[in-house]
Amino acid sequence: MLLKQKCIVEGGLALLATCARYVDLSQHAEAPEERRRAQLLLDLLTPVAKTFPAERGFESNALAVQVHGGYGYTSEYLPEAWLRDQKLNTIHEGTSGIQSLDLLGRKAVAEGGNALLALHEEIEAAAQRAGKAGVDAAWTDTRFGTVDTGRQDIVFTDADVRRSRSPAGARVLVAVGLADVAAAVAIVAVVRRGRRLGR
Question: Which are the catalytic amino acids?
Answer without folding.
Answer: 93
